[in-house]
Hints:
- The protein is an alpha/beta fold and 250 residues long.
- 33% of the residues lie in helices and 17% in strands.
- It has helices at residues 9-26, 41-52, 80-87, 109-122, 159-165, 184-189, 203-211, 235-243; strands spanning 2-6, 31-34, 62-65, 67-69, 99-100, 128-131, 153-156, 178-181, 192-197, 229-234.
- Helix 1 packs across helix 2.
Amino acid sequence: MRIYLEADYAAMSRRAANLIAAEVIRRPNCVLGLATGSTPIGTYENLIARNRAGDLSFREVRTVNLDEYKGLAPTHDQSYRYFMQTNLFDHVDILPENTNVPDGLAADADAECARYDALVASLGYADLQLLGLGRNGHIGFNEPDDHFTKETHVVDLTDSTIDANARFFATRDDVPRQALTMGVGCIMAARRVLLIASGADKADALYNAVCGPISPNCPASILQLHGDVVVVGDEAALHRIVEAGVSVCR
Ligand code: F6R
């Protein structure tokens, strides 16, 4: 596991964008696994700038997103499809048909999960999977549990996740209670994983993910079993790891 320590959110975002751009340049038709949430917004801004400058093309790139709220239409301004359109896809030269997000409105959510797993498998899994980190250690919406779930599945969001995401909705009651999420099987099948984290409120989860026991209590801890994980964090997010004496790249 390679850990990059960056000064702040802007530097974290630049580093993450560099790593994604390197993948796209090396493999123009790569499969990118993408995440939503506040953490990757700066990364996507950097990628948009490079695309606009003509330094990076997404023309052949295929994407698979981690998750979607159950019950939200793609046009809902808090759906993850809408997030991806407005924070990345609408601003770069990616082909719409090459972007994939689970369908939160599918009448049969379990069938949609099975379709999504088959789709990701048919693409050969992600060459690079970008992940944010929940304060409770979740990746995608794989919430702390007594077991890991391998397949894409419908998940009940925990109170901690509902609280954390309430900031994006008018009221806490508006936050959907369920989501469709890739399981840890698809995530672990990615050739490379890029985990990004910013801010002191991620420090405990990041420490547990990197230094704690491998446990479904901290779903991100399973990444310790992946052979190619890059963590990019800012000082606030990485402070416990640095204090523990884990070696980091500066
Ligand atoms: C989003 C996702 C989540 C977020 C996590 C962190 O697609 O899968 O795991 O990455 O909740 O969210 P932020 O970045 O808003 O702190």
